[in-house]
Amino acid sequence: MSATLMDGRAVSAAVRDKLALRVRELEAEGVKPHLAVVLVGEDPASQIYVRNKERACEKLGIRSTVLRLCAECTQAELEDTVRKLSADPQVHGILVQLPLPRHLDATPVIALIDPRKDVDGFTPVNAGKLLNGEKGFVACTPGGVMEILRHYDVPICGRNAVVVGRSNIVGKPMALLLLAQNATVTICHSRTKNLAQMTRGADILVAAVGKAGFITADMVKPGAVVVDVGINRVNGQVVGDVDFESVSEVAGFLTPVPGGVGQMTITMLLKNTLDAARLQMK
Ligand code: GUN
Questions:
Q1: Is 25 helix (H, G, I), strand (E, B) or coil?
Q2: How far apart are CA 249 and CA 267, in angstroms?
Q3: Which element (helix H / strand E) includes 86?
Q4: Which atom of ligand 1 is the closest one to the Cα of 98?
Q5: 63-90 pLDDT, tens per residue?
Q6: Is 88 tagged catalytic?
Q7: CA 223 to centroid of ligand 1, rounded, Å
Q8: Alpha carbon separation from 33 to 17, 75, 139 (Å, rounded)
Q9: CA separation (Å) from 48 to 45, 97, 105, 135, 166?
Q10: Which domains are present in the chain?
Q11: 14-51 pLDDT per residue, tens
């Protein structure tokens, strides 16, 4: 292997140490940060993610409450739940775990989250702020990727960055964050022609496609920084969107899965929750 591995666990631990100090500061001022998570239905992956979020909160000293709604709940019930959380002064952060069951529409639900409590950065207000280059809550996974790049002193200004994937949760905010740091950004997706030709031009390549082993060595420029956002389950194992074995021979830097970006997603959620608590004290 020639690539240097970018260790999300180590970056995460360093950031969480700093966050622990901020929790104590808030406590000294009489505030215990409180995250409310809305979980609809019984999607096994979502249940695991939510449990991991609860554990991380507890470990750091953040209060977390999980509101569980049954898989058959109505749009009105879900919207009512979020409306109440937005109005509740005891709640600093709100997260609606996605995906929702098919009969529910996430867009109007997310729009009901008070932007000051929007620790996922998914509301139109915070997404718009990112687009305009204003300060706001940034989606946790792309925010975590930027933190990893910063930790490893990856130069971004003037580099070619290619993001594969255009979701609202990862691809689009990822591209905007790289653009804000003056990268030349290309967004590729399932309809992109000559994908390998595009990705081979990348100094920084972010894979957020949701397909196991999708990015292979022939798609990577020698020495490139490759960030793997994928979390795919194959034969009971968690693997990324990057074919680790071949790409680790070509890339200069690479995030492993597990132990890469995934760790940072929850860390950024914790950070956003503390930011939200602080913001609401003003
Ligand atoms: N489902 C997968 N990733 C996420 C995330 O970052 N936030 C929420 N709310 N749901 C998700």
A1: helix
A2: 29
A3: helix 75-87
A4: 10
A5: 999 999 999 999 999 999 999 999 999 9
A6: no
A7: 31
A8: 16, 28, 19
A9: 5, 11, 22, 31, 25
A10: 30-115 (3.40.50.10860), 139-263 (3.40.50.720)
A11: 999 999 999 999 999 999 999 999 999 999 999 999 99
